[in-house]
Amino acid sequence: MAQTRQVMGNLRVALAEAGATVEDVVFVRVLVASSERSELVDAWQTFRDDFGDHDPPATLQGVTVLGYPDQLVEVEAVAAVSG
């Protein structure tokens, strides 16, 4: 899912600006505006591919609608960095 790849790229930028990487992420929530399980699985696989071997606790949830027009995917991530 192209939008998921874009969201994951945006997440990496936001993490970098905070001095973090995906390896610092301790929790993730992936929200997908769809009732189709296959679309949730596609978004989840894109997320998993992006995070590689790092496997933080995560939740995948299908929702009716997200906040912006044409928004299909939202990723919430919590990172822990020392500093």
From TrEMBL:
InterPro entries per the UniProt record, alphabetical: RutC-like_sf, YjgF/YER057c/UK114
Pfam families: Ribonuc_L-PSP
PANTHER family tied to this protein: BLR7761 PROTEIN (PTHR43857), YJGH FAMILY PROTEIN (PTHR43857:SF1)
Identification of the protein by name: Enamine deaminase RidA (YjgF/YER057c/UK114 family)
